[in-house]
Design goal:
3 domains, Phosphatase 2c, domain 1, five-stranded antiparallel sheet, Beta-Lactamase
Length: 636
């Protein structure tokens, strides 16, 4: 034994240690305190019931959140005539939602429809919309009327939907709008039906042991899910057989329904042939329902579970003992040379192909050192190659930045031969290249095009898309109609937009003789008009979705009269969403205040003053987004 290699002797000692440890485990296994098992029964029931509870709460919370989200956004989507698609997509996304009903008061203007009703019809989804209340089955009408009469959001009692013979519960969320006085006004409601049939499938599919089951009760004790489908809505906890609860049924039932915390009790369910079972009930805080989990006692004490739990415990303890034992043996048996040999061998085996290891430790050291030398040389070569690649990438990025900068207009004044207009711009990319664009050019003697846009995404791809968009705008700016130019640009961008970029764009067409500015805002930040009297007008009207997404979308436009010495300010969201060292946004409000303080200044002075305020606001914070501004002054 002493003449063998260190690895061989160590394996023998470890084997002896493992055998000794597990022999000790066997002895301890037979004398382990059995009383700990009884306590684990309750813990197991709680753990399994909590898992089921989380599944049920997910359905309940998701249904209420869906109703709230629709209530917050349905008027916006309705004005875009996309409310039916928006609601239908939610029904498709969440299979446990049976139907969604939306009713908006006719006092809300600019809506093509005021009522929407989307529901599941077998394997399809039906969408109805109209200007009057859309009819539904009788039970739905009754429950909907009760929910609408409530002032606050909340759940209905479970009921049977006659349309598709599904048990459901409805959640109502009011639609609120803000009045000119700043108060909230209720203008309708959204009602989402949670399919308890789907919830029943999910609850029944969750295995609680081998024979255990779970079911839901309403706040008045009626079964709303159950493994026995005939009991749903037809039986309650008050109807249980006297053998099930061998005590005062009424008192016990009231206690369970009134509890706000989880609890346990002993019962003898019919489904278990009145054999003893542990019942663990958990109140659902969101709507007062109660989840009940039932586990048979005989299953909890099956012999299989006891050895598994004990072996898990002793395995952890055994690992600790083995570790301490091996550490002691290594310290006692392995000399310094053997320790170095093991470390070198471990390194070689992890980083290279495995080789037959001789028993002689000196040969092992030599082979390991040769391998490490070869590996280190390869490592140095790899590092050198990576450094060269990094330099090439940086050079490519610098060239891309220089190319993009060459497209940016920097000549001031922009139109030296004209005295009726003046403008100045600022372009500060966050990185080497930017997805922001701006431009200004005449399409004839009277009409000046002003553009400001922001491409989704960052880096070189966004910059290339910006260049394409800028060229497309110039190509299609043939007539002095803002919405027509935007529609043409959108169609061309959709045709070649394989990477799903999109562009928010503000495009204005100014008649320099009359001062009339026609503009189309495709989901871009609103522009501002600063008058010579120090007042700021916000061009907040939006005329459509960003460009490059839907080729068949149409766009509107608006007009505004620019008077002498009025200043138009265009910018990207990098201005208002700029963050300081405290992670606070610059905001539209602060931008407006600064513009008012710059009344009467030239475009160049306004831009330079704003740039200084940006630097002061950010402090030592890093610029996170591209910052672009275009300031135009009308002097005619």
């Amino acid at each position: 034994m002493l003449n063998k290699s260190i690895a061989y002797r160590l394996s023998v000692y470890i084997s002896l240690a493992v055998i000794g440890v597990f022999i000790a485990f066997i002895g301890i296994f037979f004398i382990f305190n059995q009383s700990l098992i009884k306590e684990s029964v309750k813990n197991k029931a709680m753990s399994q019931s909590n898992h089921v509870t989380s599944q049920v709460q997910r359905y309940i919370v998701t249904t209420s959140e869906v109703a709230g989200n629709i209530a917050d956004q349905v008027i916006f989507y309705g004005q875009q005539d996309h409310a039916d698609l928006f609601i239908q997509s939610l029904v498709i996304k969440y299979p446990f939602i049976n139907a969604i009903y939306v009713k908006i008061d006719s006092t809300v203007t600019q809506l093509p429809y005021w009522s929407y009703f989307t529901y599941r019809d077998r394997d399809s989804i039906t969408v109805q919309r109209g200007s009057r209340n859309i009819s539904s089955c009788a039970n739905e009408q009754v429950q909907f009327e009760k929910l609408i009469k409530k002032k606050d959001e909340g759940w209905s009692e479970p009921y049977l939907c006659e349309r598709n013979n599904i048990v459901v519960a409805a959640y109502c969320s009011p639609i609120m709008v803000e009045t000119p006085s700043g108060q909230k006004k209720r203008v309708g409601e959204v009602i989402c039906e949670l399919s308890l049939n789907e919830l029943n499938k999910q609850v029944n599919s969750l295995k609680i042991g081998k024979e255990g089951f779970a079911f839901l009760m309403s706040n008045d004790g009626v079964y709303i899910t159950h493994p026995v489908n005939d009991w749903i809505l037809n039986r309650s906890i008050y109807d249980v057989h006297e053998k099930v609860l061998r005590e005062d049924i009424t008192a016990t039932t009231k206690q369970v329904l009134a509890e706000t915390k989880p609890g346990t009790l002993i019962a003898y369910p019919e489904l278990f042939n009145f054999e003893k079972a542990l019942v663990y009930y958990v109140p659902i805080q969101q709507n007062g329902w109660v989840l009940v989990s039932v586990l048979p006692y005989k299953e909890l004490f099956e012999p299989l579970y006891l050895p598994v739990l004990q072996m898990l415990f002793f395995s952890v303890l055994g690992i600790l003992i083995i570790y301490l034992t091996v550490t002691y043996i290594i310290n006692q048996q392995i000399k310094p040379l053997s320790l170095v040999t093991k470390q070198l061998k471990s390194f070689s085996n992890l980083t290279g192909p495995y080789k037959d290891i001789p028993e002689n430790e000196i040969i092992q050291v030599a082979e390991s050192l040769n391998y490490m030398k070869s590996w280190y040389e390869k490592y140095l070569q790899t590092q050198s190659d990576e450094q060269k690649k990094k330099q090439r990438r940086q050079e490519d990025m610098n060239q891309a930045s220089e190319i993009q900068q060459s497209f940016i207009k920097t000549i001031y004044p922009a139109f030296p031969d004209r005295t009726d207009i003046d403008l100045y711009s600022s372009y500060q990319p966050a990185k080497g290249v930017s997805g922001d664009l701006f431009d200004y050019f005449f399409i004839d003697d009277e009409h000046l095009i002003l553009t400001m846009g922001d491409v989704s995404g960052k880096g070189v791809p966004a910059a290339f898309f910006m260049s394409v968009a800028q060229t497309t705008i110039k190509t299609n700016a043939l007539v002095p109609k803002a919405n027509i130019i935007v529609e043409k640009v959108n169609k061309e961008l959709c045709t070649s937009n394989y990477h799903q970029f999109f562009l928010t764009l503000f495009l204005g067409v100014l008649n320099v003789k009359t001062g009339i500015l026609e503009y189309c805002n495709a989901a871009h930040t609103p522009g501002y008009v600063l008058t010579k009297n120090g007042k700021v007008k916000e061009l907040a009207q939006s005329h459509g979705l960003p460009l490059g997404l839907y080729s068949d979308k149409s766009y509107g436009s608006a007009k505004i009269q620019l008077n002498r010495d009025d200043t138009l300010v265009l910018y990207t969201d990098g201005v208002t969403e700029m963050l300081n060292e405290n992670n606070e946004q610059y905001s539209n409000h602060q931008l407006v205040d600064n513009l008012i303080s710059l009344t009467g200044k030239s475009p160049k002075e306004i831009v330079e003053r704003l740039e200084k305020s940006f630097k002061m606001y950010m402090g030592h914070a890093q610029q996170a987004d591209d910052i672009t501004m275009l300031v135009f002054n009308y002097k005619a």
